Amino acid sequence: MSRLRSRVRLVDQARVSGVALRSRKVRSVLSALGIAIGVATVVSVLGISRSSQADLLDQLDELGTNLLQAESGEGFGLGDDTTLPDTAAAGVRNIAPVQSVAMVTELGESVLRSSLADPDQTQGISLRAAEASTLDALAGTMAEGRFLDDAIGAYPTAVLGAVAAERLGLTEVDGRTSVWIGGRSWLVVGIMDELPLAPDLDRSVLVGYAAAEAYVEDDLAPTRLYVRADADVVDDVASVLAAQANPEAPENVDVSRPSDALEAKAAAEDAFTSLFLGLGAVALVVGAVGTANVMVMSVLERRGEIGLRRALGATRGHIRVQFLVEAVLLSVGGGVLGVLGGAGVTRGYTVWNEQPYALPAAAVGYGLLAAVGIGVLAGVYPAARAARLSPTEALRSG
Q1: Long-range pairs for 13-18 at CB < 8 Å and ≥24 separation?
Q2: Distance separating the N- and C-terminal Cα atoms of the chain
Q3: 25-63 vs 10-22: helix axis angle to the nearest 10?
Q4: I need a labelling partner for 328 at 20 to 30 A (CA). Which of 36, 185, 229, 343 fits?
Q5: Is-above-0.85 flag for pTM?
Q6: Where do the domains of the chain lie?
Q7: 125 HSE (CA, 13 A, CB side)
Q8: Per-residue model confidence as pLDDT tens digits over 258-267
Q9: Per-residue confidence at 154, pLDDT binned at 50, 70, 90?
Q10: Which pLDDT score, from 0 to 100, does residue 376 have?
Q11: What is the rounded distance in angstroms from the CA atom of residue 199 to the CA atom of residue 201?
Q12: For residue 378, what are the β-bridge partners?
């Protein structure tokens, strides 16, 4: 005689589980919300990190990684900063792969808003002489007006860095705006945008070499060189740059690549990404505990239902699968909500900061996978507990 077996399709189990969750809407929503917060944290952290990295890569592509910087450093046993020799720029230009060289000299004069300003309130603004090729070498742009050239650079004219302009309270160039340098009024002809490759120039006021020699000081030995080289041989140029800039004392020359600072910034953001991912993992654990708690309470409240289903032929496996499916549905619902929320947060962040929107597919996949995993882990114990109830015990207690 063949034995009859009770069969329940998985789709029917899912339908029954959905009805059970809808009958306890508030509890289900609150439990799913805990998972959603954790998933949203993970997705948004990964999305914001990838968007920031994409922005940095765009900047590097635009600015180039072939810029080198050579500046005077401390000589062995000297104690004071040395200067580059007057022939430094000419020597560097003799390196075959060098495309361009821009020379900058730091000057000792203070920059004031007007002759009536307190001379002790310099606001951290420095004065530098710069060649006309400096802006192009740094791949910079002008926010207002124009940069120095050989014509206007011979007269008392000045260009302000972005931060210097802000501290001086200047936002536009109208042909009458001026600053006070060395007991003389200097006409402001331009304001630069921020320079990612030379942030120190953002806090500087630049004047032409001819004007600096005529109105400020005559000792204009360069303190820094900005060197553009062929991208394929940047490292080779860097290795000989100090010797070419100062053949007598190459150890007094510090050579660096400004784009390394942007790459270091990306590495620092990766460290913060790991930290926030840890916080997201904590939120996911809290969500898992909440889901498990909801499922345990559901088992206690539905003992009568469990006993009736068992009496009608449902096996322990059916009961186990039903509660496991409920936990997974609850977690997946929270996971989908979290992915949408994380994507929205990433989008808002990139729009606010004017960055490219980049949401990695892995972030979405990890978020949903974490939600499913949480559902399974949170549902195992309640499902096993429900399956262990005998029909008579369940009916009697229900």
Answers
A1: 13/318, 13/321, 13/322, 13/325, 14/325, 14/329, 16/322, 17/322, 17/323, 17/325, 17/326, 17/329, 18/329
A2: 35
A3: 100
A4: 343
A5: no
A6: 10-60+263-397, 66-257
A7: 27
A8: 877 666 666 6
A9: very high
A10: 76
A11: 5
A12: none
